Structure formats: structure tokens, C-alpha cells
Protein: Activator of Hsp90 ATPase 1 family protein
Organism: Patulibacter medicamentivorans
Amino acid sequence: MPPNDPHAHTASIAVDASPDDAFAFMASGRLQTHWALGSWDREHVEGDVYRGTSLWDGSDLYVRVTGHPELRLVDYAVGPDPDALRRVVEARVVDRAELGHDDGGSVITLTVWRTRDERPDSWARTFHAFQTEVHLIRGRLDSSSALAVGRRAREASDHGA
């Protein structure tokens, strides 16, 4: 989908993680800090609401994360005010076996819908951000990447770094 779609952007990626593991990762408000460019340094506010810092402008962004495990669907209600969040982002996890591929992995799809007040430049940026975020997600979920990152971290701590 090109950045000029007026209503929604999607981005998807295949990962090695099982559908259940991928869903758990996507449904974690805390772990979003590792991939959501608009909500970095995530902290828990209360209940299912989290706050993060936008890497674009440093503003606070609140997120209510609602997981639907039976569908492997996660709704993200977002906004600058925790009392006025809009459900405009979702993540869907599909078992690759359901798509006729080798089993054991997943496809994760992010979708964001454009609000009436979204500026054209911000909307175009969102397209590119989603394309980047799915790669951040895969980097965190794929076992070979996770093992490599963990090994490097252990080696660094062993050498006093």
C-alpha cells in the first residue's frame, strides 16, 4: 500500500516465532517500547494504559492495549490524552501454516487508520514508520536474532562493558 492511501496503512512481516509467542509479544504494552517509534521508553500508567515518548517530537503518547487471544488480534487505542484515546491501530497475528507455508512461524500485520485531523506529512511518515516497525518486531522475535543479541550482551557484560 503506497503512502498516499487516504484511509489506512498496513505493514506485514513473517517471523519465526509461534503464533502464540508473537501474539503475546504484540499484546504486551511494556514490550512495545522496543518497536513503537511513536511511543518509546514505555511506562505503565494504570490498568491497560501505557505512556511513551514520541521519537518524532518528544511528546507523550498514551496507549491502551487490548488483546483478543482467540483472534490473535490486538487493538491499540492511542492519543495525547489518556481519557480520549482512539482505537486506530491494530496488530493481527496469523499462523503461517494457515497460509500454506511451513508451520511454526507467523505473519504479523499492523494496520493504522487515518483520523480526520491527521496532517498529510504526518500520515506519509506513518507509512514509513510502520514499514520500519515490522522489521523491529521481527528482530525482537526471530530466535536467531534474539540469540545473537543475547549472546553479544552477555559477552559485553563478561568483558566489563
Notes: The domain at 8-158 is CATH 3.30.530.20 (Alpha-D-Glucose-1,6-Bisphosphate; Chain A, domain 4). The helical segments are 19-26, 120-141, 143-158.
